[in-house]
Amino acid sequence: MPCYQLDERLWFPPVSAAEEYGLLAVGGDLSVERLLLAYRLGIFPWYSEGEPILWWSPDPRCILLPSQIHLSRSLRKTVRRNVFTVSFNRNFEQVIRSCRESRIGAQREGTWILPDMEAAYIRLHRRGYAHSVECWQGDELAGGLYGVCMGRCFFGESMFSRRTDASKVALAWLARSLEDAGFALIDCQQTTEHLLSLGAQNVSRQRFLSLLDSGEVGSEHPLVSRFPLSPVVPV
Prior knowledge:
Elements: E1 4-6, E2 23-27, H1 32-40, E3 44-45, E4 54-56, E5 61-64, H2 73-80, E6 85-88, H3 92-107, H4 115-126, E7 130-137, E8 140-150, E9 153-161, H5 166-180, E10 185-189, H6 193-197, E11 201-203, H7 205-214, E12 233-234
Parallel strand pairs: 1-2, 9-10
Antiparallel strand pairs: 2-4, 3-4, 5-10, 5-11, 6-7, 6-12, 7-8, 8-9
């Protein structure tokens, strides 16, 4: 199938036109409006340095239902020990920067969180759509994650850990909060063994799009986010 070339107009081809590995379109921009349209349609950007912006809609899609997160015995012990404090949106910019730095440091191959991507998601955060979960040990940011919230769906983008289990605790607290708020899903985008071990599952693209509909993503009102903000809490 052809890969579509985007222009300055605000549009995407139908996701059914994606190539076998999920690549749908090339080009366009990372404006708030285009990113929100992409998430509504089940599309996300992912590209490396030196490449144009690439837009993806993989089939199958990896998701995590908030009520089905799996905590191992050791992770439950970590939660009960109260060594971390979890916060929401306390320092979004530090979280996305830490996600970028941790991937460069671990893989030595660069990261898709390029300066333009970082700036784009900071704009989304300032508009109330992108959110972070932070896991602290004292004043140190030990781990965290960030993503985009639309309707009753959370689209996870990246996570990092500087201390054992810190990102897992952040994800566990996110899932618990989203479950309490009646969210439909956490989109994990790409499948990894790590995510599967935490209870994530693969669903078809068609099933994923149906879940987006049930999560009211398409009816999201501008500047409105249903992300369940909570105070900083000991975990």
